[in-house]
Amino acid sequence: MGDEGAYAVRDEKNENVLYLFVDKDDALRYVGMLDADEFPPMAVTEVEDRQVIATCEQSNCKYSIITPDDLVIPPLQKPDDPVPKDSVEKPPEHG
Predict the structure, then answer these.
(1) Global pTM?
(2) Which residues of 61-80 are buried (b: 16+ CB within 10 A; e: fewer)?
């Protein structure tokens, strides 16, 4: 299936971060919020945490372990949206 993969969010450094939910209900709730925001359909998959973390570390991929005490909200920007232009004004060029 060509559409399979892992969902990641972009952090403040514009790097992808894979969310690893400890609690399945929290993961299902997050997917429900994504569905409500018209993201492509997603499914929650149980994975072996040590294996995924080792894979992330070997491939230099960032990850975040989401515990039941954490509150995560989906990003405002949908995956199909164009990358927003920087709102910072360009300084004048110097000769």
Answers:
(1) 0.72
(2) bebeebeeeeeeebeeeeee
